[in-house]
Write a structure and sequence with these properties.
Blueprint: H1 2-19, E1 22-31, E2 39-48, E3 51-57, H2 58-64, E4 69-72, E5 76-80, E6 82-87, H3 103-115, H4 120-136, E7 139-147, H5 153-163, E8 166-173, H6 194-208, H7 211-214, E9 216-222, H8 230-242, E10 247-251, H9 255-265, H10 269-276, E11 283-287, H11 296-302, E12 305-308, H12 310-315, H13 323-328, E13 332-335, H14 348-363, H15 371-378, H16 380-385, E14 403-407, H17 419-426, E15 432-437, E16 440-444, E17 447-448, H18 453-470
Parallel strand pairs: 1-4, 1-5, 6-7, 7-8, 8-9, 9-10, 10-11, 11-12, 12-13
Antiparallel strand pairs: 1-2, 2-3, 5-14, 14-15, 15-16, 16-17
The chain binds zinc ion.
Zinc ion binds near residues 86, 88, 250, 338 and 339.
Length: about 475
């Protein structure tokens, strides 16, 4: 019996080894994001299986490695895949459904009713469209913050598995259909009951957490204060601890949120989070626009992450999150694109530029949030936030190969004095040329291997507006269509 087991084990190892192929990215400008933040000119990265096994000068690496696949990155920049810490997969299909509207009608008349009318087929298509857009603009890991059961959690997880992107998928949890003091803010199609949402999240954790070679994690997606009771938040906190997973929540996004917490509980947002047990390094607070300075200490001490979503905050006129202030208080701040009606795109490179710009004007100080800090937010800080700090976020020996290649040979990207500056201030998602996730080439020369791009676009064009029609909404150009 022992021998048979040994033999099987050996055969398995050989089979796994035969699947391992070496990839070399050569002749690149490698932005390592290592401890010393080294940028290697004429650099190369060697990938074996799903791991980075060597980083250095091309000449030296070429003399000691003969790879199965060599990718010439002359004139290109190689950097860690970008990490989007706040995404709504289901909102890609409702892109542009509620432009230039105030938050409450935006949410109650358009976004929530449309999402509340989704079938699982539309939920899955929206996820596919969103993943396609993220891969094409250099995002290799994302955090989905509120997956409603009606979108088809299982099918979406299968889609993420098949596409090859890395993801934290959070199941939405609520036990009151409210938002802040508005008790009936959540429409029928989006209402879930507390006990069921807990049960579903645990079911999904058991089924998907750690699956796809540990590429998929399942977290608790607690809804905003006003949609959960204190006891319910405490139950979520206890369950997240029990299953050793994370929690993500929208916090202090608009002024109304802090007014509600002050009036109802006499607390600041982070005091309330502490009161509910929603604190710790495994928590991502999306937006945090109105988090007051006295809360920074709690954030720093408890080790949670604030996910800055500048485009969404600007478009919905939510305000300016005190990001430079949080960073100088030692708070971990990551970056996120939010969703189709609030951004309206999932392009982390454009998001980086916005993050770098808005705080300079707000504080009348061009030195705040330099390009380098913003790139840290989109890589290393995101890795810490997703609890994948030892796996992703930098290009270093032993880390998992989540890498993107950006083509610098474009009119808007030359000359290159400081490659990080060109990336943050001059590039956009369309400049991403190649994407490797978990050691696999997912996109090469802008062709995505794991998806039929034409089919996704065609289906999105056809099916996107079908949801509007079902609800009797006629959202169209404000100018006459001839
Ligand atoms: Zn959001």
């Amino acid at each position: 019996m022992f021998n048979v087991l040994e033999k099987l084990k050996r055969e398995k190892t050989i089979r796994e080894m035969s699947l391992m192929s070496e990839i070399i990215l050569k002749n690149a400008t490698v932005i390592t994001m290592n401890r010393r933040r080294e940028i290697i000119q004429d650099g190369a990265v060697v990938i074996e299986g799903n791991k980075i096994i060597e980083v250095g000068k091309t000449k030296k690496i070429k003399s000691s490695h003969r790879a199965d696949v060599e990718i010439d990155c002359s004139g290109k920049m190689v950097l860690p895949g970008l990490i989007d810490c706040h995404v709504h997969l289901a909102q890609a299909l409702i892109r542009g459904c509620a432009d230039d509207m105030a938050l409450i009608p935006w949410l109650r008349e358009r976004v929530l009713p449309l999402q509340g009318a989704y079938t699982p087929i539309e939920g899955e298509l929206s996820a596919r469209l969103c993943c396609l857009e993220m891969i094409k603009s250099g995002t290799t890991t994302f955090v989905e913050s509120l997956l409603h059961w009606r979108y088809g959690f299982n099918q979406i997880a299968r889609t993420v598995e098949k596409i090859g992107i890395r993801a934290v998928l959070s199941k939405s949890l609520m036990n009151i259909p409210g938002y802040a003091d508005q008790k009936d803010a959540i429409p029928g199609g989006m209402i879930e009951d507390g006990e069921t949402t807990i049960k579903q999240t645990i079911e999904m954790i058991k089924r998907w957490h750690g699956k796809a070679n540990n590429r998929i994690h399942v977290w608790f997606g607690a809804r905003t204060p006003g949609a959960c009771t204190v006891d319910f938040y405490r139950e979520i906190s206890e369950k997240a601890r029990k299953y050793r997973t994370g929690i993500t929540i929208h916090l202090a996004e608009v002024k109304k949120d802090i007014e509600y917490l002050r009036r109802e509980f006499g607390m600041t947002p982070m005091e309330f989070m502490q009161h509910c047990g929603i604190v710790g390094p495994n928590v991502i607070y999306a937006h945090g626009v109105w988090i007051p300075p006295e809360d920074f200490k709690i954030l720093h001490k408890t080790g949670g992450t604030v996910c800055h979503c500048p485009a969404s905050n600007l478009k919905l006129a939510s305000g300016f999150a005190p990001i430079p202030e949080m960073l100088s208080s030692g708070v971990n701040v990551a970056l996120g694109c939010d969703g189709g009606p609030s951004n309206n795109c999932y392009d982390m490179i454009r998001e980086m530029k916005l993050a770098a710009l808005i705080h300079k004007a707000r504080l009348l100080d061009p030195e705040v949030l330099p390009a380098e800090t913003v790139l840290e937010m989109a890589t290393l800080n995101g890795a810490k936030a997703t609890l994948w700090r030892n796996k992703i976020g930098s290009i270093e020996r032993g880390k998992v190969a989540d890498i993107i290649v950006v083509d610098l040979r474009r009119p808007h990207l030359v000359p290159v004095r400081n490659p990080v500056s060109n990336l943050v201030y001059a590039a956009n998602g369309g400049d991403v040329d190649t994407v490797i996730i978990d050691g696999k080439i997912i996109m090469e020369n802008r062709r995505v291997m794991s998806l039929d791009e034409e089919e996704v676009i065609h289906q999105a064009m056809e099916m996107g507006v079908a949801v509007d029609k079902r609800l009797g909404l006629n959202i169209r150009s404000k100018w006459p269509l001839k």
